[in-house]
Specification:
303 residues, mainly beta, 20 strands, globular
């Protein structure tokens, strides 16, 4: 899909509407981590439901459909048990050029800090609930991989994923965004680091690309960042820019020198921004944000 704007918009909060309430009213209860596809006159929204640690963590990925981008009907729910996972994180919903539907699911290995990405594929969004998962980004004993963002163009498939080092249990929250390419969206080759933390800045502890906007050979991305380990799960949102290289791949991105966008409610988390072009020509952003009681809800606003 080509987005008909050239600058990535950021949230204003006061113009936002809650589209999915969290499954609880306490910190650690989240709805969010959205991924969007606009197809056949509908907005399809994939998101994660989470309970606090000790109460289930990431319990499910959900796929829902809406005609107006506001009121959604659930069409598929994918529970963590089908992955043998301790938790699920952000799904990436994709429609292939052939018209098939894919959901890239981030799954946590029980008892570890390791994550991998599994793929579900079906003819319809509803069919994703019964699809058999296959691992497409396994990570390894030294790296956890999760939260992919995908883009397809004439050069093939492109992916940006959050990668966490596993050398130390206490430092496994650190993250960079790594970039990979693929001829089919299934078999991936890692190319380079796309975005890294900046010492001394608001994103010094880690960065995670959450959406990309490609206009010609220019790429603009929203990303989550945090300065300390204590801000884990309460990242704020910034913008980075880069360009396509002569070989058709995308090079490293450079973060804009600007203050991040956060929720007005402590501890100010606002993350996982996803951009959608609606059937009526409007554009919406979807994002997860901290509300007054400390839970996270899934919000949208027209931009």
């Amino acid at each position: 899909m080509t987005i008909g704007i050239t600058a990535l918009p950021l949230p204003r909060w006061e113009d936002s509407t809650v589209v999915v309430e969290p499954p609880g009213t306490e910190p650690g209860a989240w709805s969010g981590a959205p991924s969007t596809v606009v197809a056949d006159g509908f907005v399809y929204l994939a998101y994660r439901l989470r309970l606090p640690i000790g109460a289930g963590r990431g319990i499910a990925n959900v796929v829902a459909r809406s005609a107006d981008g506001l009121d959604f009907t659930v069409v598929a729910e994918i529970a963590k048990d089908g992955f043998g996972a301790e938790s699920l994180e952000r799904p990436a919903l994709v429609r292939t050029p052939e018209g098939r539907w894919r959901l890239y699911v981030s799954a946590a290995t029980p008892g570890t800090k390791h994550w991998r990405v599994d793929l579900l594929e079906a003819d319809t969004p509803e069919g994703l609930a019964a699809a058999t998962p296959r691992t497409v980004l396994a990570g390894d004993e030294d790296h956890a991989v999760k939260d992919p963002v995908l883009h397809h163009d004439e050069q093939g498939w492109h992916l940006w994923a959050s990668v966490h080092p596993l050398e130390s249990w206490d430092d496994a929250d650190r993250m960079t965004t790594e970039y990979a390419t693929s001829p089919d969206g299934v078999h991936w080759t890692w190319q380079r680091t796309a975005l890294a933390a900046r010492p001394g800045q608001w994103d010094a502890r880690g960065v995670r690309i959450t959406s990309v906007l490609v206009s010609g050979d220019t790429i603009t991305a929203s990303y989550d960042g945090r300065a300390t380990a204590g801000e884990n799960w309460e990242e704020r949102t910034g913008v980075a820019r880069g360009s396509r290289l002569p070989d058709g791949t995308f090079g490293p991105l450079v973060a804009e020198d600007r203050e991040p966008i956060g929720s007005p409610h402590e501890p100010f988390g606002l993350r996982y921004l996803s951009l959608a072009e609606l059937p009526d020509g409007q554009h919406r952003i979807y994002y997860e944000a901290t509300r007054e009681d400390g839970a996270h809800d899934l919000r949208t606003e027209v931009v």
